[in-house]
């Protein structure tokens, strides 16, 4: 099954917790801190893989998670890092977040984007030793992994795309010039999914796409217009096939006008692509198949028959020349990855009767295993002050005794002592 659009729910791995442990020594009653740190959780990465032809596997299985890191242990044994989750997608796949922002356009095989970072591993008490506290009896908890929905949208990566009305002979042509074997029949919309074929012209090769038939209004979504037109976007060359047969009520010159208008309405840049046009089914010997009006619009329009082969080789050579020229001029984008601005460390909001501080930096500051210990609570308070949380709460209107929630913890706000 050809699937070119899916939504997936992805989750990065949670970090492992640190450990509290002491190595007993003669001169140290409590011993030397020896608790290992937890391992970082696995990342979620989406990568273009040329062995993938469709997004079908994600339609059947939309939920995927990276491995979590393991916990630290005594004797300075650190936790294992969680394995990254690498999701292979076909080249030509665009990645959108749940807000519809394009994060990456993965065109070339091997291109990849990290969409979710793994949770940071908590530090063990050996890593928390400081001049203020030589033997900490607490450790950091591991950070939870992130979870979010993403949309994957695939657009065929082809050198040339066959465009035309239903039953214009696109499938017959691609089956003649390549090993592609699309369904061929004498009724409209035989092809419901794009087909790719590799065409050899002398010592050159190019990838040809058979885009399902377009109709007037396709750019506004008529038929399956948006789904079909999307697959023209990456093609270096557009091949317009015109059907002169009596069964087609729209004459070739009108077909050409409609197809150009739909391409322009979908993406104005498509009309700037190199374009070659051909009237098909010349074996039917239809009088006036190429009208003077069409000749005026497209002086170099070809006449071909995919059944007998008339004019097909010449058309393929023309396409190969245009593909080669377009490749030199860099017509097709090489893809990109969006580097988003670093998010703010935290936000302060009022919810019901308490202040709520959100943000990974603030949650990390209080992610200690036992905040009932005075030394742990003091460290958390100093971290929040350095981060600017105290000042932000005061500016937001917090007063002595107000409740403040950070992650799973609720604290009582104390105004800083001016003295």
Spans of 5+ residues with little confidence (pLDDT < 50)? 182-192, 217-226
Task: Name the CATH superfamily assignment of the largest domain.
Answer: P-loop containing nucleotide triphosphate hydrolases
State the name of the first-level CATH class of the largest domain: Alpha Beta
* Architecture per CATH nomenclature, i.e. the level-2 architecture of the largest domain: 3-Layer(aba) Sandwich
* Lateral arrangement of strands in the main beta sheet: 5-1-10-7-8-17
Helix count? 9
Q: What's the shape?
A: elongated
Compute the gyration radius: what is it?
Answer: 31 Å
Largest pleated sheet: 6 strands, mixed
CATH topology of the largest domain: Rossmann fold
Count of the separate structural domains: 3
Overall pLDDT confidence: 85
Give the fraction of residues assigned to helices: 10-25%
Give a topology summary:
Elements: E1 5-11, E2 22-25, E3 28-33, E4 44-48, H1 56-60, E5 63-65, E6 85-89, E7 93-97, E8 102-106, E9 112-116, E10 147-154, E11 160-164, H2 170-177, E12 195-201, E13 204-210, H3 225-229, E14 237-242, H4 252-266, E15 275-279, H5 292-297, E16 302-303, H6 312-329, E17 336-337, E18 347-351, E19 354-358, H7 360-365, H8 374-387, H9 389-396, E20 403-406, E21 409-412
Parallel strand pairs: 1-5, 4-6, 11-13, 11-14, 14-15, 15-16, 19-20
Antiparallel strand pairs: 1-10, 2-3, 4-9, 7-8, 7-10, 8-17, 12-13, 18-19, 20-21
């Amino acid at each position: 099954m050809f699937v070119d659009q899916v939504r997936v729910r992805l989750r990065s791995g949670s970090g492992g917790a640190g450990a509290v442990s002491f190595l007993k020594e003669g001169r140290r009653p409590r011993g030397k801190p020896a608790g290992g740190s937890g391992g970082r959780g696995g990342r979620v990465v989406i990568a273009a893989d040329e062995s993938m032809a469709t997004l079908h596997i994600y339609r059947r299985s939309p939920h995927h998670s990276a491995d979590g890191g393991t916990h630290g242990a005594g004797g300075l044994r650190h936790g294992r890092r969680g394995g990254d989750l690498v999701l292979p997608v076909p080249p030509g796949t665009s990645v959108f977040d749940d807000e519809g922002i394009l994060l990456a356009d993965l065109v070339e095989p091997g291109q990849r984007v990290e969409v979710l970072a793994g949770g940071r591993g908590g530090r063990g008490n050996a890593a928390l030793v400081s001049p203020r506290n030589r033997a900490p009896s607490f450790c950091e908890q591991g950070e939870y992994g992130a979870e979010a929905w993403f949309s994957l949208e695939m657009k065929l990566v082809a050198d040339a795309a066959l465009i035309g009305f239903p039953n214009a002979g696109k499938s017959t042509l691609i089956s003649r010039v390549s090993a592609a074997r699309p369904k061929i029949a004498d009724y409209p919309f035989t092809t419901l999914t794009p087909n790719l074929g590799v065409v050899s012209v002398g010592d050159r090769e190019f990838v040809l796409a058979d885009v399902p038939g377009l109709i007037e209004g396709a750019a506004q979504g008529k038929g399956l217009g948006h789904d079909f037109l999307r697959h023209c976007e990456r093609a270096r060359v557009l091949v317009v096939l015109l059907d002169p047969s009596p069964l087609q009520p729209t004459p070739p010159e009108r077909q050409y006008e409609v197809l150009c208008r739909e391409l322009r309405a979908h993406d104005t840049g498509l009309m700037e692509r190199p374009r070659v046009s051909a009237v098909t089914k010349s074996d039917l010997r239809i009088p006036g198949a190429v009208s003077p009006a069409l000749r005026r619009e497209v002086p170099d329009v070809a006449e071909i028959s995919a059944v007998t082969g008339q004019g097909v080789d010449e058309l393929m050579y023309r396409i190969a020349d245009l593909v080669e020229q377009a490749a030199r001029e860099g017509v097709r984008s090489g893809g990109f990855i969006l580097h988003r601005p670093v998010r703010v460390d935290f936000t302060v909001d009022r919810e019901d009767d308490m202040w709520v501080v959100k943000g990974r930096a603030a949650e990390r500051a209080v992610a200690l295993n036992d905040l009932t210990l005075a030394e742990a609570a003091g460290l958390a308070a100093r971290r929040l002050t350095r981060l600017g949380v105290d000042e932000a709460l005061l500016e937001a209107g917090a007063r002595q005794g107000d409740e403040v929630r950070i992650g799973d913890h609720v604290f009582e706000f104390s105004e800083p002592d001016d003295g």
